[in-house]
Each structure stands twice: as C-alpha cells, then as structure tokens.
C-alpha cells in the first residue's frame, strides 16, 4: 500500500508527495496540519490509529493552521470506528473517506469513489463495492446468502476476481483454493474472513475478523462491536478488546483503554468510576452480555510499527500464556503495562 499510494500512484498522476514518518505528535500534535499549510496539501492518506493518537492531544492544534487547500482525509489499514471518524470530521470540517481492502485484493474493495461518481459517506462504513467486485454476505454455518438489510454475515467475493487480485499462494495452488475458496459452507466464493453488515442503502460496515469473535455464554460477539461502543465514551481515545478464557462463560471480554484525559486516574476510586461509566455505555448500546468483565486503563496500547493492535499478545498475557513473537512490537513498554494491569487486577492507571 505504501509504495502504491506514496510512490507509483502520485508519480503516474504527475503529483508531488510528502511522506511523514512516525507518530503525528512529534515535535507536537500540529505537525500534520503545519505540513498541510506549508505545502498546500490537497489530499491526505493515513490510518485510523494515527487519528486516535491525536484524540488525546490539545484540540487547539486542529484549528491553528490554514487547511483550506485540503480536500479530504483518506483513512485505511484497519476498521475506522464511527466515533473516531465523526470526531476528526467535525474537527477538520473536511470529508473523511474510509476504504476497505486487503493485501490479497491489491486495491480497494469497498469505498466511495467520488472521483468517478460522487456519493455521501456514512460514518463507520467504508462505503459500497468497487467496480470489479461482486460482494455478498453469507451465513457462516449454512452458507445461505443474506440479502436482507442489517444481517451479520461473512463478507465474500464471487469470482471471477478483478485484475490485480491475488491469484494463488506461491507454489501451492491447493492451499490457495482450500484457504480462501472453501471456507463458506457449500459455496465457492473468496472469503475475506471479515464480518460485515449491509444497510438498506447498500453501504457495508465491517465488524472485525471472523476469528476475533468472543463466545460469551453462547453469545457470539465481535470485538469490533464492543470496541466501537467503548470508544463512544467521551473520555476514551483508544481501546482494544480481547476474549479471555473463563471457566463459567467460556470467554469474557476484557478491554484495555487509553483515556483522553488521564488526570486523576492514579486514584483507584477514579479508575473504578470511569470503568463503571464505560461498562454502562456498553450495557446501554449492546446489552449486558457484551459488557466487558474488566476495563484496564493504560497510557498506550501494544501495536506493531505499522500501527496494528497486537490483540493476540494481549489475550495471551490475560490468559497467562507466552505472547510469542514480538519482533514487530513498536514499544515493549506498552505490553508491560498490560502485564502490570492484569497482574494487579485493579483497573490500572495512566
């Protein structure tokens, strides 16, 4: 994605590109917008993780610079939750364009192609199917196609696949077929291994990976759904939810959150109050079954250097297992915080 969007695409179109590497808070939280003003940037492309980092910073940085040249902010690489999308859209007053694709697809599967046909964006949705993709939703158990609005199913693509799409696994055609084309019962379709729903207007909403599902007392809950609910709390900047083995319920949801304003959270009573507020938020939006068993507050979440959350490592720490290969971990201190909060079992502090 980096070379396609930063190098080849702009060069083919005769455009100049500015590449900014690192957290968007160095030297301060206005660096992105300072660059937009200085170089009259017209389009920005980044990841939701970077925007969530900005939610903890002084909002004055968002209005300090002249952003009149900026036409849109494009975000991709992971699901863009509605609270984050709405926050940055309101702060900048610019269109926020989400898009969904995979390494295997080679180019966006779901987005809004305003350059071809203008259409409104919907917060929390990457958009509609792009040209060349026949997108459908299927029941994970029966393989039945789900055609009614707002039904949760596995997002799959009917063949033939468009140009640029993954064609096989290197020297292992059978593995390609078995892995991608035979996972939906009774269907020969390419599975994205992502949950999704489609609304009455044909817009898709990605709910997370099919293997990021928590089975709580027989209820199958997507971690993305719980994360989005927690992120809607006004004092939550970032959150990660993992499923942790539980002798009674099979699994329970455990959340790790970064507070926008962490002042006072060194006090155990203040942490418990905020934890209770977060749980009530999930109760009201998703029901008691989705309520996390604990909400631990940390100052940063374990991520790879490219900004992906290391949920499996967090889950392993919660279950007392070896988190495995951590060579891609950006800051070892983040996972150490998770260990300390879980070991203390007190909700932690920031």
Task: Provide a descriptive summary of the structure in words.
With 350 residues, this protein is of the alpha+beta class. It has three domains: 2-94, Rossmann fold, CATH 3.40.50; 134-206, Roll (Luciferase, domain 3); 212-344, 2-Layer Sandwich (GMP Synthetase, Chain A, domain 3), CATH 3.30.300. The protein is 27% helix and 22% strand. It contains nine helices and 14 strands. The protein has a five-stranded mixed beta sheet with strand order 1-2-3-4-5. A four-stranded antiparallel beta sheet has the order 6-7-8-9. The model is unreliable at 346-350 (pLDDT under 50).
Head-to-tail CA distance between termini: 34 Å
Helix residue percentage: 25-40%
- The portion of residues forming beta strands comes to 15-25%
Instruction: Note the total helix count.
Output: 9
| Tally of domains | 3
CATH topology value of the largest domain:
GMP Synthetase, Chain A, domain 3
CATH superfamily grouping of the largest domain: ANL, C-terminal domain
